[in-house]
Design goal:
single chain, 82 residues, alpha+beta, three-stranded antiparallel sheet, 3 strands
Length: 82
């Protein structure tokens, strides 16, 4: 809802208004609906990131990546999987 010009809460609904002049539109969603949308978008994003990671790992030699030549910061090593 970050790009809506106006956001408000009416009862149990979150209302976002976007557009200008005669072209204003309104989006209404409950907290549960918004959370469900966020969970779905996050799951899709994670699936795409996983697919991208697998794609890159499968093609590391063709890309020219040399695993032992990249210096990884200490705070990143905890999350470094390859």
């Amino acid at each position: 809802m970050a790009h809506h010009f106006s956001t408000r809460v009416e009862g149990d609904k979150i209302v976002g208004v976007y557009g200008k002049g005669k072209h204003k539109h309104e989006l209404q969603v409950t907290r549960q609906g918004l959370l469900a949308a966020v969970i779905t978008i996050h799951a899709a994003s994670r699936a795409l990131k996983t697919a991208r990671t697998i794609f890159i790992i499968d093609r590391m030699e063709k890309i020219g990546f040399q695993p032992n030549t990249v210096e990884v910061r200490n705070e990143v090593k905890l999350l470094h999987l390859v």
